Amino acid sequence: MKNFASLVVLLLIATSVWAKDWQVDYSNSQIGFVIKQMNVPVEGGFSRYGVKAVFDPAKPENGLFTVELDIASIDTGSEEGNGEAKRPAWFDTARYPTARFVSKSIRRDAAGRFTVNGELTLKGRTAPLSVPVILTPQRTGGWLVSGRAALKRSQFDIGGGEWADPSVVADDIDARFKLLLKP
Amino acid sequence: MPTSYRWPVIGLHWLTLLLIVAAYVLASLLEDMTLSPLKLKLYAWHKWLGMSVLFLLPLRVLLRVLDPLDHRAELTEMEVKMSAAVHGLLYLLLIAVPVLGWLHSSAAGFSVVWFGVLPIPDLVGKDKMLADIFKELHEGSVNLLVFLAVVHAAAAIYHHHIRRDGVLIRMVPWLRKKA
């Protein structure tokens, strides 16, 4: 048993040796979302965010991903929407300026396809979030990390009060991301 | 000879007027509103009503063409020409105003889903500058539409009260029944 434990430790050290802290090419990356307003899908996104991606391409299951969003950088698709989104009923950026996703475990589903299970902290509330991710090798030696996640705004008290009615602004948020990792 | 249009022509004419007035009133309300769920609802209704005007138009033109009433009856040669010009422009604007609104919606990144059910395809991609241009043209063209509708109504009233002919009766046959 003791031998097994030391083997695990050795393996962890070995993988951490090969795991690389990838740098993100932010100008070619995007984190966005689609939310229905009056049943019309409207695109939005965040222009400022930080990503930490540490993994060994041979074994991404042992990797670590964290994403930090600067909520004030939100684009809701319209200027008046951007102003409204920062107010207390929505994201309350004065009290909760950032949102954070931290991966807890990564499962390999198929070649290049993974499910990243983690925790999303948004407006001071933390909830588990499962994110299907596709890892695509780039010619340059970098990687494209893409995927989408289904969220419900009510789970994080985003848009309460008069905005709670999901027939006006839907509860479902379809989050999408494309992150280009430099070689 | 019939003295009025058939009921579907008359019904759709007045329905179109109702839709335009409602869409116009909604647009005026929207101008002064700050963002709220009500504003999103009214904005959607404005688009739904406007697109309805556009969708009804081919049917209206078809029914009008098939209608046996001779619109030139009781008109002078000059009036036939003026009436053709005003009607031609009105039809053009009944297309242009909703299409410019549709273009504005597409360029603004807020597509139209007709009555929340039928997604209308975008005519152009999202483009802030284009969106502003289409907004101006939409507003300008609707002012022209309102102006021409007033000319159109004034001409009808002139025929009814001054010329005392049956031109207004064609579209308002219940006026005759009362008289």
Residue-averaged pLDDT of chain A:
91
Morphology call of chain B: elongated
**Proportion in β-strands of chain B:** under 5%
The DSSP helix count of chain A reads: 2
Largest interface: A-B, 18 and 17 residues
Span from first to last CA of chain A? 39 Å
Q: What is the share of helical residues of chain B?
A: over 70%
Q: From the structure provided, what is the oligomeric state, counting identical versus distinct chains?
A: heterodimer
Q: What class, by secondary structure content of chain B? A: mainly alpha
Q: Structural class given helices, strands, pairing of chain A?
A: mainly beta
Write up this protein.
The complex is a heterodimer of chains A (183) and B (179). Chain A has 183 residues and is mainly beta. Chain A has a single domain (20-182), classed as Lipocalin (Beta Barrel). Helices cover 13% and strands 56% of the residues of chain A. Chain A has an eight-stranded antiparallel beta barrel with strand order 1-4-5-7-8-9-10-11. Chain A is elongated, with a radius of gyration of 18 Å. Chain B is mainly alpha-helical and 179 residues long. Chain B has one domain: Fumarate Reductase Cytochrome B subunit. Chain B contains five helices and two strands; from the N terminus they run H-H-H-E-E-H-H. Chain B has a two-stranded antiparallel sheet. In chain B, a hairpin with a 3-residue loop joins strand 1 (112-114) and strand 2 (118-120). The longest helix of chain B has 36 residues, at 128-163. Chain B is elongated, with a radius of gyration of 18 Å. The chains are: A mainly beta (183), B mainly alpha (179). Chain A binds chain B through residues 37-43, 77-78, 80-81, 83-84, 162-163, 165, 168-169, and chain B through 34-37, 40-41, 43-44, 108-113, 116-117, 126.
